[in-house]
Amino acid sequence: MDLPDALTPPVGQSAIRKIAIRLVPFVALMFFINYLDRTAIGFAAPNGMNQDLGLSAAQFGFASGVFFIGYILLEVPSNLALHKFGARRWLARIMVSWGIVALLFTWVQNVEQLVALRFLLGVAEAGFFPGAILFLSLWVPSRHRGRILMLFYLAQPLTTVIGAPFAAWLIQQHSVFGLEGWRFMYLGVAIPAIVIGVIAWFYLKDRPADAKWLTAEEQSWLTTALEKETAQTETREKHPSVWLAFSSGRVWMLSFIYFGFIYGLYALAFFLPTIIDGFQKQFGTTFDVFQKGLITAIPYLPAAVVMYFWSRSASRRGLKTWHIVIPAVAGAVSIPLALFTGSPAATITVITITACAIFAALPNFWTLPTRFLTGIAAAAGVALINTVGNLAGFSAPYITGAVHDWTGGYQVPMVIVGGFMLLSAVLMVLLARQDRRLRSDAPMPLVEEHQR
To answer: Which intervals hold domain Major facilitator superfamily (MFS) profile (predicted)?
Structure first.
């Protein structure tokens, strides 16, 4: 695990390594369960749920996306509560809450109940992801955050690599407890959230000084390094506040950049299983439920590998503009091309490029807000970026489903996805140029220009 660097003293290297081994995998496990629960609807849809509940593509898209309405409404308040009450209590509370709501999907009977439960799931999950990002950022100095967040973010593509076959296996267990396969799948992915949420209450610590698995010297090094960075940031930004985050042009620009990536991410997450299910009609191929789960997982394993090495490059070179722009352009070009190929293998190959592009950019992107925000401003800023970005979580599945019903295919919806990702690339270039103009007043630049 190549985390430490030559500029970090041995005590610091030891501290960062312990955080990577003891803390990050557990928070990543929480994220794994989080992402699996919110995307379980994508696995259920082509495997009996849409037929049993009589859903059209637009109704499925709306039910998938309405999750983000509840999520968005409470995102910022939830992250402010995390700042007030502490990450350990708040993240554990969030996890148990969404586990209980996720469990109720087992007995959903109609589209109205499905929509209501998806909305409540969003309310219950609100604040988890930005809270986890903020929590990990408060444990390590800025030069190590990219690699720490990369290790955390590995949980998202691995959710599909492991979760898609797992969900497919659950769906194949027909009549367990008298439930249809897709209902039993909901049951199987909900219970871990409740169990791990309870464990998190006792396992997590709010700060390095509370971690008994760190030595006194390691605690002192981390605390000193973090306090020094906080003081430098507060000197630049005066007094951290919620208003500082909400009035920052950088925060809003990052929000719109994130929107494009999330639009692509959830268009894939919710509709890839359905697209694969359509291979039978389009290409005359036949796959059973478990095989479809394995095919769904294919793009995400290379994505995890690419994410690791791309983040490693950003950490070693310093984050450059192209570390985010190149993946955005690659995703923008590849995702519309995926549905114009001539075989299932070619389609999955191109979609794999899209998945690699999205996941290469995201962990590097999330190192940016805490470079210029601290304290309650960081909590509000990270939540605001995630809130605006996750508007795409609602709009992507709904627009994709509605345009599919209008056009009769997924080609036009995927062109729209590509357009939003291209917009993210353009905005990232503009942000970097603006930051270069302001650099004389900002000792810690948001990104380093690629020419340097």
So the answer is: 23-436
End-to-end CA distance of the chain: 28
Buried residues in 357-372 as b, exposed as e (16+ CB within 10 A)? bbbbbbbbbbbbbbbb
| CA separation for the pair 145, 369 (Å, rounded) | 11
Residue reference for tokens 């367990």? 176
Number of H helices, E strands in the chain: 22, 0
Least confident range of 43-47, 243-247, 249-253 = 243-247
Instruction: Report yes or no on 232 lying in a domain.
Output: no
Half-sphere exposure of residue 274: CA atoms within 13 angstroms, side-chain side: 28
Model confidence pLDDT, tens digit, residues 88-98 = 899 999 999 99
Residue from 314, 395, 381 nearest 130 by CA: 381
**Residue 343 lies in domain:** 12-205+245-441
Instruction: For residue 201, give the CATH number of its domain.
Output: 1.20.1250.20
Residue range 306-353, pLDDT digits in tens: 998 998 888 788 888 899 999 999 999 998 887 777 788 888 888 899
Per-residue model confidence as pLDDT tens digits over 3-57? 445 567 889 889 999 999 999 999 999 999 998 888 888 889 888 999 999 988 8
| Cα angle 317-322-327, degrees, rounded to a multiple of 5 | 115
Q: Name the domain count of the chain.
A: 1
**How open is the CA angle 400-406-409, to the nearest 5 degrees?**
65
435 vs 429: CA distance, rounded Å: 10
Q: Which of 352, 372, 391 is nearest to 431 (CA)?
A: 372
